[in-house]
Amino acid sequence: MYSFKNDYSEGAHKRILDAMIKSNMEQTDGYGTDDYCLKAAEYIKNKMDYNDADVHFLVGGTQTNLTAISSFLKPYEAAIAVSTGHINTHETGAIEATGHKVISAADTYDGKLQACHIEKVLAEHTDEHMVKPKLVYISNPTEIGTIYSKSELKSLSDCCRKHNLFLYLDGARLASALCADGNDIALSDYPRLCDAFYIGGTKCGALMGEALVICNNSLKEDFRYNIKNKGALFAKGRLLGIQFLELFKDNLYFELGDFSNKMAKKLKDGITKAGYKFMIDSDTNQIFPIFPNDIVKKISNNYNYTLWKKEDENNSVLRLVTSWATDETEVENFIEFLNNL
Amino acid sequence: MYSFKNDYSEGAHKRILDAMIKSNMEQTDGYGTDDYCLKAAEYIKNKMDYNDADVHFLVGGTQTNLTAISSFLKPYEAAIAVSTGHINTHETGAIEATGHKVISAADTYDGKLQACHIEKVLAEHTDEHMVKPKLVYISNPTEIGTIYSKSELKSLSDCCRKHNLFLYLDGARLASALCADGNDIALSDYPRLCDAFYIGGTKCGALMGEALVICNNSLKEDFRYNIKNKGALFAKGRLLGIQFLELFKDNLYFELGDFSNKMAKKLKDGITKAGYKFMIDSDTNQIFPIFPNDIVKKISNNYNYTLWKKEDENNSVLRLVTSWATDETEVENFIEFLNNL
Amino acid sequence: MYSFKNDYSEGAHKRILDAMIKSNMEQTDGYGTDDYCLKAAEYIKNKMDYNDADVHFLVGGTQTNLTAISSFLKPYEAAIAVSTGHINTHETGAIEATGHKVISAADTYDGKLQACHIEKVLAEHTDEHMVKPKLVYISNPTEIGTIYSKSELKSLSDCCRKHNLFLYLDGARLASALCADGNDIALSDYPRLCDAFYIGGTKCGALMGEALVICNNSLKEDFRYNIKNKGALFAKGRLLGIQFLELFKDNLYFELGDFSNKMAKKLKDGITKAGYKFMIDSDTNQIFPIFPNDIVKKISNNYNYTLWKKEDENNSVLRLVTSWATDETEVENFIEFLNNL
Amino acid sequence: MYSFKNDYSEGAHKRILDAMIKSNMEQTDGYGTDDYCLKAAEYIKNKMDYNDADVHFLVGGTQTNLTAISSFLKPYEAAIAVSTGHINTHETGAIEATGHKVISAADTYDGKLQACHIEKVLAEHTDEHMVKPKLVYISNPTEIGTIYSKSELKSLSDCCRKHNLFLYLDGARLASALCADGNDIALSDYPRLCDAFYIGGTKCGALMGEALVICNNSLKEDFRYNIKNKGALFAKGRLLGIQFLELFKDNLYFELGDFSNKMAKKLKDGITKAGYKFMIDSDTNQIFPIFPNDIVKKISNNYNYTLWKKEDENNSVLRLVTSWATDETEVENFIEFLNNL
Questions:
Q1: What does the record list as coiled-coil region(s) (chains A, B, C, D) (predicted)?
Q2: Range of A136's domain?
Q3: Is the domain of D232 the same as that of D301?
Q4: pTM (2 decimals)?
Q5: B341 has pLDDT over 90
Q6: Residues D113, D21 within the same domain
Q7: What residues contact A77, with CB distance under 8 A and at least 6 apart?
Q8: Which of B333, C139, C223, D278 is buried most, with the most CB atoms less than 10 Å from its CB?
Q9: Is C9 helix (H, G, I), strand (E, B) or coil?
Q10: Domain check: are A290 and A194 in the same one?
């Protein structure tokens, strides 16, 4: 059975694997202090056209979120997120485990946070009997595949600066956002609009790894202590450096994002032509078609996917995910399969 | 410059790398629920001749220690360790970050904990104004390369059972302990004597990965929730499964441990013949020769190593570490280099 | 200016103060191990007609909530509350500071949680990528003065037992709930329906103090360690014992609850007669009248109160609170004042 | 049986109790924002001749320590203390429960920390694989009744400033230290030499309460949020204000400290004359006589005390504590009792 279940079903892109194989017997220092990591950080800063940032490589997304957020906040400070935000729902309380409340600011149709949601939270949190909202968490793409426009991100960034909040962006699938149709946020915009954000590797072609970019100077000090304190300082750190070096030494990261989006687009077009609708319009590598339950049953016999939610008595929303590794023939097969039902 | 600095300077053993390459484009479920992980767990249980254990694969040692210990203890319970214990000194307060005190029970010459140290701690912690010691942390080999004998481990285990304490063993370099000259603890003894322990991969031939073995039934429930809660649930979990499967499907794990010990032995013999002494007698892959400072200076120009401590005004203790990847010619070169000084 | 702002504006009921004065120079053991505490616990158990409970005396409500909940839950487990629940909004993230998520289960008109809200949360939390809901938090009265009926509480209790959840009840104002018109939950029902709950002293006539009652045997062990671990073990613990002994050696606790309700009723009747409505119908010592803003302004010049929220452009909801200490003449004056506006 | 077990066996000094009785029916705002608290803070600042400090009133010592230290430190930072430091041994891991390691810096004969101990810890903690020592914890008097000289405290303070560490002083029994024979540290020295410290009330004549004084501006911001976050914001906060106001509006605090020391001196002199020695020479309200075990047995039948430790096979060290409430006749009786043995 072919799987459209997620974008971490396979290993790594061939070029990344080759780079790891090639360097395998080299001796390097541990914990991310090696030349590969240094060089990868330089490449990323060059691609961002932004030099005044610290880049740290961590293994996974939840790990990156909890290490960063717990480092940035004082004990009584809280993060703001939409109700569907990954840290709010799908990280098993990892942020709270470090002592911080995640404030669910809004239940939005498109999974996006707006400045007005932040303002509302601030208006409700006025004294020391409540947590102090201090960090705004968003992801791009969102949990449901939508993307922020540059003006939307700028508006959030302005709101944060006005209210002395940190803007933190989870870029687990940033490659897909960067290459989406309609995207107008360049990689170089992120360090200018966010206080910190991470460039996802795990879901964008690497075996594992996320590149955390800290732009706000006040958040940089001693960050490696935080990484170790959370058990996230990776012994053979160069493995992360090698992968990000490969992704950013030319345009591989963007090519992989583009490819995954193209595969999703192809799926989306096929499904649309076959007469089905979607829960939400997404231009990234996650799409959410609505199928009648009997069709779902037949799909289940042939494909892996995620059942997102019940739309109504007779219909269900599925999540289908493509990636750098998606087999285009399988995409075509799926559409054909659907048309033959 | 050749490096004897640590056992995580290189990538992975060729067979492990090959297995990863071979499976690279296979689609599997994420987060360690794939067949590779299941099979690797089976292999490990078979090698231990012990079926009633849960095996979880995590990425790194500190991560494994903090996830396990924080899961096993109630908020007011503490871990007991020797002063040099890894959790006490070299994990940046990772255990304390989860809320638990590490009690430094003894400052021992050989880095080993004894039942009498535990008894002393228990005698000093008698009521609710002090933490309740509940878990005993040891590593084998210890931080300074020594190993426990079976009777020593049994004595600790008996003491723990008598006092209703958990015995947790950090096996970051377990391969080396298992294959050390003079070792009489079989892999099959560990699940019988410990409540939980981990079999290290990172320092024993894998790219990364530790196999946590939970033997005590009362510690098993919902453990995957704990892993995720600590940001340690690895998305492409199959990468850990593949590596441990390769290490345990035959005797590779033991062969690598044996090889690293042999290289250390060769170094040790050469250094001894050259007329130098050691801080401690170690049969594993870490050795601690004492050199005059002028010799150290010359070594520094040609080799990477860790300066362990000053022995006195004129002499220093170095830590030299070998591994599965150590180049035997380099070992011979080092000895020749030393003899030529 | 007379204050209807809260029920902790004054010190303690005269009988309580007298008991403290009388015992002032007696020597007792510290930390709640004295005879006053033991006897007070006995009186409470007698009044509950329930002997198999542990009673611990703590200083304040947030302290009691965080000590209890953090003790009852494993690291990845979460508490369920309504959105207005005290632990969710007015404890500055105290529960999260101990590592646990508070799940906001519902936004209810009457501030009450229902079994269906719990069921919905459980249905949404199905695997280790999400926290595990394990404890249900309610307060009686609720944050807006409403009370649960016995059948409502029984339904919650049944739901919790069915799903293996702990039911924890915050009784900061339990005296008022116990004596409310329409209340049909006896004190003896609480230990039978809850796993743990606390009987509030601070807001019910004592200088300070809350009596935590742990009924579920599995939650009792080593609880005093948790109290100390959270900095909540009170040195002169007998001060809490003396106060609860006085409250429960006869019916003082109930008399004070009854009096505070009567004062609220008198206020409510007067306000109603004066032609005003209420945000919610409350039979306890907190009432929420809606006044035009110009009336509010005049009240502000003469009385202290809490501005609860804006009802609309022209009207505001006020919170008026009465207590054991409320001066009946001042209640009458307020009504007269209102009628004269 | 008369008790020399501790200095919190009785209630409060009569003047304090009277002040509480007198104000009992006054209405004030909650949570320490009332005029009593404001005035008490002013009195304390006047007595310290130091205006640029924030004064917060908390209920107990462990609570104050954990709230302050967890507020002052970043997640990976640690506190330094002597092995016998209260936070290291007698607070049930309360500091670790907030995420921070307590580094046991030295095992000293007199219970005092020295700059050299701090320097040693700093020398051992050099990179991100270890916690970052950031706060020095001392108490005056120490756990065994000894006091720091001004030059000793100055030396610690200089060392902390040199290394950018916070100096935090636990003054649970500060009244006794301030009035000890040989003391040369004035109350006005504390805010000048420490970054924060607390003036103990619980053990110095109050029912409860500690006045935390924060002198370092960088530690002041939002501190009330921390207090609430730790469940330590006391509802009827004015009770703490009233007590400290009474203690500091004239010299009551010093008189009580002086009295408790005089009672200890009288005990010490009598015990010395009776031919017994002491574990340590203390000028404060805790003394540590060494008695033969048969004498201890007889004392046990007539007095409450703390068995501190076994001196040897035949002798034991007792801790005897006096206080503002000690009955001088009982002191005389004890000496007579001892002489009659």
A1: none
A2: 14-251
A3: no
A4: 0.98
A5: no
A6: yes
A7: A100, A131, A132, A133, A134, A135
A8: C139
A9: coil
A10: no
- What is the ipTM metric for this complex? 0.97
- Of all residues in chain A, the percent with pLDDT exceeding 90 is 100
* Contact list, B3 vs chain A (CB under 8 Å): 27
Q: What tens digit of pLDDT does each residue of D107-135 get?
A: 999 999 999 999 999 999 999 999 999 99
In a domain, D3, yes or no: no
Q: Phi and psi for B82 in degrees, rounded to 5?
A: -75, 160
| C neighbours by CB contacts (3+ pairs under 8 Å) | A, B, D
Q: What is the pLDDT of residues D21-39, one digit of tens each?
A: 999 999 999 999 999 999 9
pLDDT tens-place string over residues B139-163: 999 999 999 999 999 999 999 999 9
C49: left (phi over 0), alpha (psi -120 to 50) or beta: left
Query: What does the block give as tokens for C93?
Result: 């993230």
Q: Where does a domain end: D218, D252, D286?
A: D252
Domain boundary among C199, C224, C250: C250
How far, CA to CA in Å, does C190 sit from each of A312, C85, C198?
40, 19, 10
* Identity of the residue numbered A255: E
Q: By a Cβ cutoff of 8 Å, what residues of chain A touch chain C?
A: 75-76, 78, 89-93, 96-102, 104, 128-131
Residues B333 and B218 in one domain: no
Is residue A64 domain-shared with residue A106, that is, in the same domain? yes
Q: Contact A194/A215 with Cβ under 8 angstroms?
A: yes
H helices then E strands: how many in chain A?
14, 14
Pair A242, A288 in one domain: no
Per residue in A195-249, pLDDT (tens digit) is 999 999 999 999 999 999 999 999 999 999 999 999 999 999 999 999 999 999 9
CATH number of the domain to which A292 belongs: 3.90.1150.10
Report the chain A residue with the minimal C-alpha distance to residue D71: A75
Say yes or no for a CB contact (<8 Å) between C101 and A99. no
Q: Identify the contact set of chain B against chain C, taking CB-CB distances under 8 A.
A: 31, 70-71, 74-76, 98-99, 128-129, 131-132, 222, 224-229, 233
CA dist A108 and A144 (Å) reads: 11
Say yes or no for a CB contact (<8 Å) between A97 and C99: yes
**Could you give the CA distance from residue B12 to residue B204 in angstroms, rounded to a whole number?**
9
CB spacing of D99 vs B93 below 8 angstroms: yes
Say how far apart CA A122 and CA A152 lie, in whole Å. Answer: 19
Q: Is residue D1 part of a domain?
A: no
Residue B6 maps to a domain: no
Q: Mark whether C146 and C268 lie in a shared domain.
A: no
Count of domains observed in chain A: 2
User: Nearest residue of B to residue A227 by CA position?
Assistant: B92
Does residue D6 lie in a domain region? Answer: no
b/e per residue D124-159 (b: at least 16 CB within 10 A): ebeebbbbbbbbbbbbbbbbbbbbbeeebbbbbbeb
Q: Do A101 and A225 belong to one domain?
A: yes
| DSSP, res D266 | H
